[in-house]
Design brief:
Number of helices: 3
Distance between the termini: 77 Å
Helix content: over 70%
Strand content: under 5%
Number of domains: 1
Order of helices and strands: HHH
Length: 91
């Protein structure tokens, strides 16, 4: 009998995919959970069978998080640009 913790590869993968498709905030959770689980797998504390799913989910989470940040920056830039344009038009 093995004393290894069960892997959470499916959870991390689902969160990572959700971050790309539906809800970008889940990417942060996929990234954090994936990193922690990979560390536990490397230390021999977690079932290594889920390594591939965990890595894929973590990568999707990283991409989703980066896309979310870029979207927020773009929105802020547009709001700033629209504010400057509106001020110039009214002058």
């Amino acid at each position: 009998m093995s004393n290894l913790a069960p892997h959470r590869g499916i959870l991390v993968l689902v969160l990572g995919i959700l971050s790309l498709v539906l809800c970008p905030i889940t990417g942060i959770f996929a990234w954090i959970l994936g990193k922690g689980d990979l560390n536990q797998i490397d230390q021999g504390e977690m079932d290594p069978e889920g390594r591939g799913m965990t890595q894929a989910g973590m990568i999707c989470g990283i991409i989703g998080t980066i896309l979310m940040i870029l979207s927020i920056v773009a929105i802020l830039f547009l709001v700033l640009f629209m504010g400057i344009s509106a001020r110039e038009v009214s002058s």
